[in-house]
Amino acid sequence: MFKEYFAIAFRSVVAHKIRALLTTLGVVIGVASVILLMSLGNSARTEAANQIRSIGSNLIYVSISDRQGALPRTWLDEIQDKAEITAFSEMISGQTSYLVDGSNVDVSISGVNQYYGFVSSLDMTGGRFLNEFDVQHNLPAVVLGSKIPDLLFPNQEVLGNTLYIKGMPFTVVGIVEPRGTNFSGDNDMMIYIPIDFARTMFPMGGRFKTYYITAASEENIDLTMNRITTYLQRYLPSSNQSRIFSQSQILGVLDTLMALLTTLLSGIASISLIVGGIGIMNIMLVTVRERTREIGIRKALGARRRQILIQFLIEAVIITTLGGIFGLIISYIGAQLITSITDFNVVLGWDAVLLSLVFSITIGVIFGIYPAMQASKLEPVEALRFE
Amino acid sequence: MITIHDITKRYEMGSNIVMAVDGISLDIQEGEFVAIVGPSGSGKSTLMNIIGCLDVVTSGTYVLNKIPIQEYDQDELADIRNQQIGFIFQQFNLLPSFTAIENVMMPMTYAKVTKKQREIKAAELLKLVGLEDRMDHKPTELSGGQQQRVSIARALANSPAIILADEPTGALDSKTGKEVLSLLKKLNNDGKTVIVITHDHEVARFANRVITLKDGKVLTDLPMEEAYV
């Protein structure tokens, strides 16, 4: 019997192709935007997670405000073993700018020690990172972010060349692989110099001292963080004088934030699904009215109320499901387009396919039920009299 | 087969109360060919709707094949219409987007007959009414007489005991009208009970018994020969 309903409903949809297409446009747009936004959000989350994970998930950041100088300068050396710290580096950041093709380009300067390359998992495309010798003897060596060479040394040998930073000559010893942009800015527009240079260049260095720390293992990262916190509290009792957080905490916050954003955007997009559903209801009411006589004939010849109800409900569901399929196709095309235009990889998963079908069928049932009930309730005598 | 006892049908139109059927009693036996005649407003359409189980009585009883119709609900009445009654309408009432054979198959769909059997039976019936070469035509591609023959085939789909025809020749010219009536006569000769509702006495002459209505009451109920002397 269900096959018959489908045949009947399908026939009437095909008989009104243009109308069905226009009717379902709302569902098409709704499904396409929800699916696309959700996939976009999920891809962004995966991307961000991968990017951060590549830096290392046993990375800890400590930021300290110590204007009185209460904390010993070598505090990390003191607790290195007890807190199971593999390596660490303080970082002093500043900015400088260069004139390139008549306009100023900002470059971030990071003063770090020889361990920073390891701590931040920097890979080199050429040369080497700063070494112990550079840092201890305060030699003017510089390591460049991946975008710097093309910018400041176009068509030149870069390694061994001289870069002037705040008027001081530095020798380029290494170039870092592309890292992309994250919460600390564009990593590829950064240059790294021995920390003591940065200390003299930026004596005000900001209120905060920043440390990058690698815990010995990812599993014991909580222990490391606890030890550091306990130690810091001894010198800096006020809780707002020090902040400590791990890479995975940032990852968690970022993930929650993106998930929220994705849900929010999909929620807004799903309003169009509801609008689409109202369109379906409207057209189904018109259809029921137009086909009053057909309903009368069917009832006179033995259709039960439920059979009429199901016939019209299936018709609504067929229209919305077609809309869902079209929407899915459009979001697939959209995803391919975004992937090819940007360097962002948008993947449409099976969950998207399933979800769009569930959405469209649900919309069909919700907004089709009322018109179908109207149809099923018609009195055969009245319906047969309808012109 | 049909026993109607003192039935009434009352309509309220605003403050007006209309007794469309006002105390009709009649018996119709199996195999009869009955014409119900009367001018418009005589209540013959209302009576047809009641006999056809499309409408329910206000008071009185209607027993069809031992079934007390007034005790049944809408869906059960749908089943009774499907199984017991074959309808033929003045305007044919075929579904325009379906072919002749699909229209004939429709009542069988609601009777849950399998597709294969529906096709066989529908083809048989269309052959019976002489439309075996028009099976895949849509109603708009058929003449009025052909359309009415499709609807006769449809009326026979579930082998009902009663054929109920409401002005079956009303939309046809007199020649095709006669053909349709001859077909009904033939079905009656084969044992079907046929009830024709009409205002046209030429149509009523094909019946064996003529019931004349006036103002919702039976005026005369005579064998055809006595009705038209």
The fraction of residues assigned to DSSP E strands of chain B is: 25-35%
Cα distance, first to last residue of chain A?
A: 29 Å
Q: What is the SS-derived class of chain A?
A: alpha+beta
Overall SS class of chain B:
alpha/beta
Number of domains of chain B: 1
The domain count of chain A comes to: 2
Biggest sheet, spatial arrangement of strands of chain B: 6-7-8-3-9-10
Question: Any low-confidence stretches of chain A, pLDDT <50, length ≥5?
Answer: none
Based on CA atoms alone, the radius of gyration of chain A comes out at: 32 Å
Element string of chain B (H = helix, E = strand): EEEHEEHEHHHEHEHEEH
Commentary on this structure:
The complex is a heterodimer of chains A (387) and B (229). In chain A, strands 1, 2, 3, 4, 5, 6, 7, 10, 11 and 12 form a 10-stranded mixed β-sheet that branches. Chain A has a two-stranded antiparallel ribbon with strand order 8-9. In chain A, a hairpin with a 2-residue loop joins strand 6 and strand 7 (168-176). Chain A is α+β, with helices and mostly antiparallel strands and 387 residues long. Chain A folds into 2 domains: 2-51 and 253-385, no CATH class; 85-215, no CATH class. Chain A has helices at residues 2-15, 17-55, 75-79, 116-119, 132-136, 148-152, 195-201, 221-235, 247-290, 292-300, 305-341, 350-377, 380-385, and strands at residues 59-65, 85-100, 103-112, 124-127, 141-144, 162-165, 168-176, 181-182, 185-186, 190-194, 208-215, 242-246. The mean pLDDT of chain A is 87. Helix content of chain A is 56%, strand content 20%. Chain A has 13 helices and 12 strands. With 229 residues, chain B is an alpha/beta fold. Chain B has a single domain, classed as Rossmann fold, CATH 3.40.50.300. Chain B is 35% helix and 29% strand. Chain B contains 8 helices and 10 strands. Chain B has helices spanning 44-51, 74-84, 100-110, 115-128, 144-155, 174-189, 201-204, 224-227, and strands spanning 2-13, 16-28, 33-37, 59-64, 67-68, 85-88, 162-166, 193-198, 209-214, 217-223. Chain B has a 6-stranded mixed β-sheet, with helices on both faces. Chain B has a 4-stranded antiparallel β-sheet with strand order 2-1-4-5, with helices on one face. In chain B, helix 3 packs across helix 4, helix 3 (100-110) packs parallel to helix 5 (144-155) and helix 5 (144-155) runs parallel beside helix 6. The longest helix of chain B has 16 residues, at 174-189. Chain B is globular. Chain B starts with a strand and ends with a helix. The A-B interface holds A 1, 4, 11-12, 15, 293-294, 296-307, 380-381, 384 and B 49, 52, 54-55, 74-75, 78-79, 81-83, 87, 89, 93-95, 97-98, 106-107, 109-112, 154, 158.
